[in-house]
Amino acid sequence: MSQPKPTATPEPASVEPSRIREGLPFPLGATWDGLGVNFALFSANATKVELCLFDASGEHELERIELPEYTDEIFHGYLPDAHPGQIYGYRVHGPYEPQNGHRFNPNKLLIDPYAKQLVGELRWSEALFGYTIGHPDGDLSFDERDSAPFVP
């Protein structure tokens, strides 16, 4: 069984590393402190987490920012210029080893499990799956399509 090498979706505008600060690992989710937003996401096996910022419609990814810190299995970062209502999602990198329970696929936009609100609706598409439907390797295959256009 050969599997394509996992590749990240093309990145939108890059961000200067100095823009994001280390932030705090708790509380989980996106938390506004009156000056900016702290983002914190748990993952014991990820190798990198990217915070994806979208425009007000939620349809266009504007920036992708790597969360700079990892504390006690929590990736975190603080954006001093972010405000409540910022539309965001995550792309999580790590091993793609379905046989070992790891299905990291940065081509798939993930909803924050602690999100306080969703914008838009889920639109059905095979691109939502981490594997390629109909592939001879079944759910062990790797899907490279971007799921962002279909995720609220």
TrEMBL record:
UniProt source species: Pseudomonas brassicae
Gene Ontology biological-process annotations: carbohydrate metabolic process
Annotated stretches, region: Disordered: 1-20
Keywords: Glycosidase, Hydrolase
Stored PANTHER family: GLYCOGEN DEBRANCHING ENZYME
GO molecular-function term, one example from the UniProt record: hydrolase activity, hydrolyzing O-glycosyl compounds
One Pfam family in the UniProt entry: CBM_48
Protein name (Swiss-Prot/TrEMBL): Glycogen debranching enzyme GlgX
InterPro entries: GlgX_Isoamylase_N_E_set, Glyco_hydro_13_N, Ig-like_fold, Ig_E-set
Gene3D superfamilies in the cross-refs: Immunoglobulins
Domain Glycoside hydrolase family 13 N-terminal: 27-115
Family affiliation: Belongs to the glycosyl hydrolase 13 family.
CDD domains: E_set_GDE_Isoamylase_N
Listed transmembrane segments: none
